Each structure stands twice: as structure tokens, then as C-alpha cells.
């Protein structure tokens, strides 16, 4: 049984990327793993100051909601990030969280697999490439971790556009396959 942390980064209520995350979660539950979902909606997460104090203390000097999320990331066996694609890149709130996860770099983190779930109004297959590349830059700093999979739902913009999209089944099956 694995401990899976799903982080939904959209700030919209009932967003397409959150619905994609929920389908992934249903698959995880079907496989009888432990899953927790964290959403960045209503969370206060400040930008990293670049002070690098966390490299010595494994704690960030900024007191906001990021510290608790980063602690959950540290203890999860599998991380799943769900993000809308904005300007062909991950959401700013996901990038900010990844920057704030810097205390993990020198820690004994548990995660080995990372998944990326993305949604976008554009539907070309190349749309999530830069978001995936950005996440890979973060994963590359954690030598025990790897990108285990991605799911992309293109052609979804307005709330509910993802209903009936084939990516929901792909996300479910990816979660179930953990």
C-alpha cells in the first residue's frame, strides 16, 4: 500500500484540472492505496526568498501554508501534481510551490514517483511539453525520484468542459495502475 499525495493547483472552483485529479484519485482508491488531496485554493504561499537557510535547517523561514504542504510531500511515496496550462506552462502557483519545496532537497524524502496531470484550452499534443519540462527540472534535483507518467486533457477551457473527455479515463487508469 502506497501513500499518494495529489496536489491540485488550480484556483478555480470545479476546475477541469481538479476534475482530472479527482479521476486519478478514484483510480488510486480502486487500487486500495492511501491518498490525500491538497488544493492550493485558499492557501497562502509566498515566493521563495532564495536565502537557502532551508538547506541547513530543512525548514523554510517563511511562515505560511507551504511548510505543511512540503512536509506532506516529503512523506508521500508518490506525488501527483494537477495543473492548468497557462501560456504553455504550468500554473504560477505550482511553480511557486515547487520553489518553496527547496527544503526537501537535502532531506530524506520518501517520494520516488511523480505524476503530472494537465489541462488546457489548446488541444495539440505538444501543449504540455513545457510544463512537463519544467517539472522535470525539479524532479532532476531529486536523484531517487522519476517522472512516472503524465495525463493531458486538451480542448478544455470553461468549467465542466472536461466532462466526458477521454483523459478522465486515462487518469483513472493511471491512478489504478499505481
Structure notes:
This is NADPH-dependent FMN reductase-like domain-containing protein. Keywords: Flavoprotein, FMN. GO terms for molecular function: oxidoreductase activity. Pfam families: FMN_red. This protein is α/β, with parallel strands linked by helices and about 180 residues long. It has one domain (about 5-175): Rossmann fold, CATH 3.40.50. About 35% of the residues lie in helices and about 20% in strands. It has 6 helices and 5 strands, in the order βαβααβαβαβα. A 5-stranded parallel beta sheet has the order 2-1-3-4-5, with helices on both faces. Strand 4 (about 115-120), helix 5 (about 130-140) and strand 5 (about 145-155) form a beta-alpha-beta unit. It is globular. The model has no long low-confidence stretch (mean pLDDT about 95).
Find the CATH superfamily: Flavodoxin domain
Give the helix tally. 6
CATH class: Alpha Beta
Main sheet attributes: strand count, strand direction, barrel closure = 5 strands, parallel
Q: Order of strands side by side in the largest beta sheet?
A: 2-1-3-4-5
The general outline is globular
Radius of gyration: 15 Å
Query: End-to-end span in angstroms?
Result: 9 Å
Indicate the CATH architecture.
Answer: 3-Layer(aba) Sandwich
| Helix residue percentage | 25-40%
What is the count of β-strands?
5
Amino acid at each position: 500500500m502506497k501513500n499518494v499525495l495529489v496536489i491540485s493547483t488550480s484556483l478555480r472552483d470545479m476546475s477541469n484540472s481538479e476534475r482530472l485529479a479527482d479521476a486519478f484519485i478514484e483510480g488510486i482508491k480502486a487500487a486500495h492505496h492511501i491518498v490525500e488531496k491538497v488544493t492550493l485554493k485558499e492557501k497562502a504561499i509566498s515566493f521563495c526568498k532564495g536565502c537557502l537557510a532551508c538547506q541547513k535547517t530543512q525548514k523554510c523561514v517563511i511562515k505560511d501554508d507551504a511548510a505543511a504542504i512540503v512536509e506532506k510531500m516529503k512523506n508521500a511515496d508518490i506525488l501527483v501534481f494537477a495543473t492548468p496550462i497557462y501560456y504553455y506552462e504550468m500554473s504560477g502557483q505550482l511553480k511557486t510551490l515547487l520553489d518553496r519545496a527547496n527544503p526537501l532537497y537535502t532531506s530524506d524524502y520518501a517520494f520516488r514517483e511523480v505524476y503530472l496531470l494537465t489541462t488546457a484550452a489548446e488541444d495539440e499534443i505538444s501543449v504540455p511539453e513545457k510544463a512537463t519540462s519544467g517539472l522535470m527540472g525539479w524532479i532532476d534535483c531529486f536523484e531517487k525520484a522519476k517522472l512516472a507518467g503524465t495525463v493531458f486533457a486538451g480542448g478544455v477551457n470553461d468549467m465542466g468542459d472536461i466532462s466526458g473527455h477521454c483523459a478522465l479515463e486515462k487518469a483513472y487508469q493511471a491512478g489504478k495502475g499505481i
